[in-house]
Write a structure and sequence with these properties.
Elements (H helix, E strand, L loop, with lengths): L1 H33 L3 H7 L9 H6 L13 E5 L2 E2 L7 E4 L5 E3 L2 E10 L21 E7 L4 E9 L11 E10 L2 E9 L10 E7 L7 E2 L12 E2 L9 E3 L7 E10 L2 E9 L5 E2 L2 E2 L1 E8 L7 E2 L14 E4 L2 E6 L8 E5 L6 E5 L25 E7 L5 E9 L13
Parallel strand pairs: 2-7
Antiparallel strand pairs: 1-25, 3-5, 4-5, 5-6, 6-7, 8-9, 9-10, 10-11, 12-13, 14-15, 15-18, 16-17, 18-19, 20-21, 21-22, 22-23, 24-25
């Protein structure tokens, strides 16, 4: 009997030792794969490297050399001169700024009068602040006091693809030519109308501008509306992420080609746990005037609103704001398509107009140190303001030494 008990206990002990050895082996393998160092454990405050939560495993995949360079805080301020708030006038969606002839130049959406919505006569009303707009431009010697010059690109003739409104413009200079890309709407402006992207170019920064005779980018044509009633949420098939509208264009020369980044709005757009169902895409061309071919990898974001992209470290950085589960993040892609989160911010200025004169290699967010934004004064009227940002380096209590 004693012999049997001895054998039984021996088996239990050996089994326990075996299990423990297997567990230790598994932990060693896991730690070896994750390469957990004492410095990582200390910095991340991990209690037990043998028991790692999903959060700790994600944290261990972070780049530990990453500092606060992708994180920023911001403030906005009023501009002087003609871009100060003016009752009855809408000025919004400033382009990036470029500097020519010793002056900063900016282009923007401009309209007059209040917004009526969709309740009235569509042919006579102004349904959005960005309806019945033209693209204007202004100049400044210091980026603070601005002089409005006049219209750069006007709406097209009746029947043209841009006869209702041209808006949300972005500037690009390539070689000796300037390019403006922008959103377009053709009348009538209904809730189901498809928004497209147009292009204009000029050898002179002050124009005149020659417009493309047809859009350079259009929504995907694979969604199906449900019924005839003007309801943009009623669909039999939603289609691609950009089946309803292509918005907020921005062209970046990159890797010998031209990358047109844009915001896509989907037919039957849903509200998700991150807000509106908004995503970004990219279309690529060999020539600034196109043709632009949408990437097969679209959408390239699962979140965002206005496009805000810039070159950095051989890749493309992107500020993702307002909508989606990854909103309020700064992301970076080594190839302009596959983006990863680099920093999370508390928020950001709306519709940023970047300062394209900035040294983008000095700091990942150097181009955001100052620029332009827009702000709603009322639901009818918006105006252009300035913003500045900074990398936060310390957090201390009142009276506490930063040292």
């Amino acid at each position: 009997m004693k012999k049997i008990i001895y054998i039984f206990l021996t088996c239990i002990i050996l089994t326990g030792i075996s299990c423990k050895q297997e567990e230790e082996k598994e932990i060693k393998q896991q730690n070896s794969e994750m390469n957990i160092t004492d410095e990582q454990q200390d910095f991340l405050g991990i209690t037990n490297i043998k028991k790692l939560s999903a959060a700790s495993k994600r944290a261990l995949e972070w780049d530990m050399a990453l500092g606060n360079e992708w994180f920023f805080e911001y403030e906005v301020f009023d501009l002087k001169g003609d871009l100060a708030y003016e009752e009855g006038v809408v000025r919004r969606d400033p382009s990036a700024m470029i500097k020519e002839n010793g002056k900063y130049y900016v282009w923007y959406t401009r309209s007059t009068g209040p917004t009526d919505g969709f309740a009235g006569d569509i042919e006579k009303s102004k349904v959005f602040p960005w309806d019945r707009c033209d693209i204007w431009y202004a100049t400044s010697e210091d980026g603070l006091t601005w002089k409005e010059i006049g219209p750069a690109v006007k709406r097209g003739d009746k029947g043209a693809y841009d006869d209702r409104s041209v808006f949300t413009v972005e500037i690009m200079k390539h070689e000796d030519t300037y390019y403006l890309c922008y959103q377009t709407v053709k009348s009538p402006y209904t809730v189901r109308v498809k928004n497209q992207i147009g292009l204009a170019w000029s050898k002179s920064i002050d124009g005149p501008w020659e417009k493309s005779k047809k859009p350079i980018l259009s929504p995907a044509d694979n969604g199906i509306w449900k019924g005839e009633k003007q309801n943009r949420f009623a669909v039999d098939k939603k289609g691609d992420f950009d089946s309803h509208k292509v918005h907020d264009p921005c062209i970046i020369p990159y890797n010998g080609k031209f990358y047109l980044y844009y915001k896509g709005e989907q037919m039957g757009e849903a509200i998700t746990f991150g807000g509106r169902q908004i995503r970004h895409g990219v279309a690529i061309a060999d020539n600034p005037k196109g043709p632009y071919v949408k990437s097969e990898y679209n959408p390239i974001s699962n979140s965002g609103h206005e496009i805000c992209v810039w070159p950095y470290n051989g890749g493309i950085a992107s500020l993702i704001t307002t909508d989606g589960p990854e909103k309020n993040t700064v992301q970076w892609s080594p190839d302009g398509i596959n983006f990863e989160i680099k920093g999370v911010v508390k928020g950001a200025p709306h519709a940023i107009g970047l300062n394209r004169t900035a040294d983008t290699e000095k700091n990942p967010t150097e181009i955001l140190r100052w620029g332009l934004t827009h702000q709603y004064k009322t639901g009818d009227y918006q105006y252009i303001r300035g913003f500045r940002t900074w990398n936060k380096k310390h957090h201390t209590a009142k009276g506490e030494s930063k040292e």
